[in-house]
Amino acid sequence: YQAKMDFALKLGYAGDQIQAVLNKLGADALINDVLAELVRLGNKSESEGQSSASSSTSTLVPRGPCPKEIASPELSLEDEVVDNSDNLRPIVIDGSNVAMRRVSLHGNKEGFSCRGIQLAVDWFLEKGHKDITVFVPAWRKEQSRPDAPITDQEILRKLEKEKILVFTPSRRVQGRRVVCYDDRFIVKLAFDSDGIIVSNDNYRDLQNEKPEWKKFIEERLLMYSFVNDKFMPPDDPLGRHGPSLENFLRKRPVIPEHKKQPCPYGKKCTYGHKCKYYHPERANQPQRSVADELRISAKL
């Protein structure tokens, strides 16, 4: 009896509910039967609460000018902030990474697809983002060569006129092209503007330059994929226990996260990151790579 009581308490059920179920089914009942009865009671109480709430609200007479706020203040707040572009983070797109990624997905080993950049920009514009910057090396404006083809090159000029695309500097010295490191432009602008980096590159060399850049890249890098001609970022950019994509793109999260079932073992869980339940004590811990774990253990 006590073992079943403790197990149900760890799952978050109230003591009086558990005691009522055990008195009804008996102390010899199987744990699965006890849990099934607890779930049934929980659903029943929720439905009764919703019906009583609806009956009580139906008798209320709205006196304000906007009944929508009285009926659902959470929804009205969400709609207001979603439409407000000031709450959306600036977007910094790694143009070379996006263009090369789309070409590789279409089966070509080499090339530069300006169409992929346009697809990524359109996706963020549809989401309501106004502050979008794309970095592309300036030598991509040059005429396309057979060994490095560039498709839809006019898109670069169009985005530059719209003040969305920025060419990183490059010049020729004695017939040799000198190119500035565009990745540093991308990370620096995103860090200074507190924005989001759109790229499938991890920027490991830049992570080693500055500790603050390392933490920023780990928390603000938005990876993506192309499905035919559809730009698709993940719904969980920071993993299963991180924020949703909608909240990840915002300065202040407004859409409530789905409630995750907490692990019944709590801090005593031995499954580590493989545990499928939610661990609140691990929510703010960044996912370290194996190499970082080895460096930390070596220092200790």
TrEMBL record:
Residues 257-282 form the C3H1-type domain. One of its GO terms (molecular function) is RNA endonuclease activity. Residues 46-65 are annotated as: Disordered. Residues 48-59 have a biased composition (Low complexity). One of its GO terms (cellular component) is nucleus. A zinc finger (C3H1-type) spans 257-282. Its cofactor is Mg(2+). Keywords: Endonuclease, Hydrolase, Magnesium, Metal-binding, Nuclease, Zinc, Zinc-finger. Belongs to the ZC3H12 family. This is Ribonuclease ZC3H12B. The lineage of its organism: Eukaryota, Metazoa, Chordata, Craniata, Vertebrata.
